[in-house]
Amino acid sequence: MTTQVRPRNMPPASEPRPSPLASQPWSGAAGLAVVLAVAALLGIVPGLHFSLEVIGPASTFCLPVLTVAALWWQGWPFARFSRAAAGVATLALIAVGGIALTALGLAVTGNFQLGHLFGGAAEAAQGHLVTSPWTVPLGAFVFIVMLQLTVVCRQWPFKNLPAVASGLAALAASWAVGVAGFALLANWDFVPAVARQALGLWNPGGPVSVPDLVGILLCVVIWQLTVFLLLEGYPVSTIKSEPLYLAVANAATIGLGIGTYWVLHSGINLTPDQVNAAAGAIVAGTLVAGLLFEGWPARLISNPALSRLALLATAGVIAVAAGFALRAISLTATWTPTEPGQQWVTTVALNFIGAFVIVHVAVFRRWPVPAGQEGGTAAG
Hints:
Order of helices and strands: HHHHHHEHEHHHHH
Radius of gyration: 20 Å
Low-confidence stretches: 1-5, 7-18, 376-380
Structural class: mainly alpha
């Protein structure tokens, strides 16, 4: 199988893989405890509304930086540090970069005021443009482009650059494509013109309503991670020609994302926020099954086809459990209107659980799991 982009020293499928029995399911269970603790700290402890309105947007803009640090730089510039020190230093770098990009996102979105960078409902009620929900769609677009470059395009066209330069180039390209795509496609027409003017909100006037656009983007993420992370690119990775592979991989990912959103939204009448919450849960399930547990126990099955089916089933079960659990927690708060409750589910599943699976495995190298028991995705 063709080598895929993967966290630190995770061997491609064509290379000998450390036996899951060597560390799983114990390292996965320990990591899951860490990830859930962080998710609770960010998503529940500060209050569900504060988590959605303040932490959520900033964490969205952290996601492209996390992708660069974990999957492009793979430890630079802290590779010589201990696992804990390197993880803390890299996490700080991601946070600083994410805050800076949140400010950039607010400036692109409309009337930028630094004092409202971490504004919540109180500032919004006073007519100030705050990050939630206005910057989140742009941040999501940038992240999806970064993920497309990383896991679908296998870092093309920047893979031959030095690691640091390639990561920075990918980040710049994801912003350029993300802003251009948002400008060409998105519209805020459902927000009254008077409100948009009062907020200073930029309305690109594109053909796709922002809620629908975000739903399509998150459905694209489902296929990005299911095919190109969980299934390691199969079946697209069987294509040997790189130009043909890139054409098929990009067309399939985007086309399947659009088709999935159409089925969920128009076919079974889910609202955009319900689609997003489902997508967030699927992403969380995929990353927990594929990275945290390294495909255990499905990868113990010798038959490749059955192993893939078992892997998909495992991720699906985790996604369903995560979705129902998060929805139950969201109902403990009062949401007016009700859509923010679904948005909180999406934020926690994608930004906190999903992202911190990557942080735990690829940034902290599974610390505090004892060294030598981290598993194949975190060796080194």
